[in-house]
Amino acid sequence: MAERRRETGHTGRASGTRGTQEHQGARETHETRATGEAPPDEDEVARAWRDLVDTARRTVADGLVVGTSGNVSVRTGDTVLVTPSGVPYDRLTPDDVTGVALDGRQVLGALVPTSELPMHLAVYRTTDARAVVHTHAVHATAVSTLVSELPLIHYMAGALGGPVRVAPYAAYGTEELAAHVLAALDGRSGCLLRNHGTLTHGATLDQAYDRTAQLEWMCRLWLTASSVPGLTPSLLSPEQLAQASERLRGYGQRGGARGTGR
After folding, report:
1. Which of the residues in the chain have pLDDT under 50?
2. Any idea of the CA torsion for 22, 28, 31, 35, to the nearest 10 degrees?
3. Using CA atoms, how far apart are residues 96 and 88, in angstroms rounded to an integer?
4. Is 170 helix (H, G, I), strand (E, B) or coil?
5. Which of 15, 21, 39, 219 is a plausible cystine mate for 139, CB 3.0–4.6 Å?
């Protein structure tokens, strides 16, 4: 579902002046400090926000979202930076940083956070995720309307923890949807959302994004193979997937998680 937004002027930004945004941001920072919580490191936040915006723009460039659909978040300390609601990613600047506490209170910025905030926060509260990517990728969304679990068409399902489940449909932005997503993610780092899209998480934004791209590719692969008249695609057995998953655990460079590919 495309994100809803505040009233905007010709620039596409939230109404009001930059000075008003800075005043509100300063007030929120003061309120955060008054609670006794340590504010996030400014340099770390600036780097994380830059990486988040780059990732959000990449989802558009790679065709995983259209317009402002989908959303991206990254956790730094106890603060979750998120894409704001309804603002095109190519218009985001370093001054537009938007952050919330794990309980949903806005602690950074003046732009309204993504409407899918409950889903993102549920993942951070329940898993060790440091980044979350949600898209409306075409092939993955198509598959979500057909099956309750992506068939084992490729061993890279092992990179997501096993067979990819489809979370039952619920209205976007609701706690109900967040609960469905958590159930579908149990033991997994990615899932499909029925009639909606994808969600993946990872230790970094790069890893979360790579898992999203891999999931979309597997869905496209299954749809392509399934479309051949008179033929049924061969699928992996649970034993074959388990063997591949074990091999994938030891794959890659030491000391970092660069993605899910071989």
Report:
1. 1-37, 256-259
2. -140
3. 12
4. coil
5. 219
Q: pLDDT of 130-148, one tens digit each?
A: 999 999 999 999 999 999 9
Q: What are the structure tokens assigned to 100, written together?
A: 């919330």
Three-state SS at 237: coil
Is residue 75 within 8 Å of 130, Cβ to Cβ?
yes
Q: Which amino acid is at 12?
A: G
Which structure tokens are listed for 59? 């989802």
Angle, CA of 54, 55 and 61, to the nearest 5°: 90
Q: 199-220: per-residue pLDDT in tens?
A: 999 999 999 999 999 999 999 9
Distance of CA 25 to the CA centre of its chain: 25
Residue 239, C-beta contacts closer than 8 angstroms, at least 6 positions apart = none
Quote the DSSP letter at residue 169.
P
Alpha helix stretches (DSSP H) within the chain = 18-34, 42-61, 117-126, 138-144, 175-185, 205-226, 238-249
Q: Write out the catalytic residue numbers.
A: 116
Contacts of 212 (CB under 8 A, 6+ apart): 59, 64, 133, 135, 137, 190, 198, 200
Six-digit token string for 261: 């590919």
Q: What is the pLDDT, as a whole number, of residue 41?
A: 85
Q: By the 8 A CB rule, do 215 and 164 touch? A: yes
Q: Which amino acid is at 178?
A: A
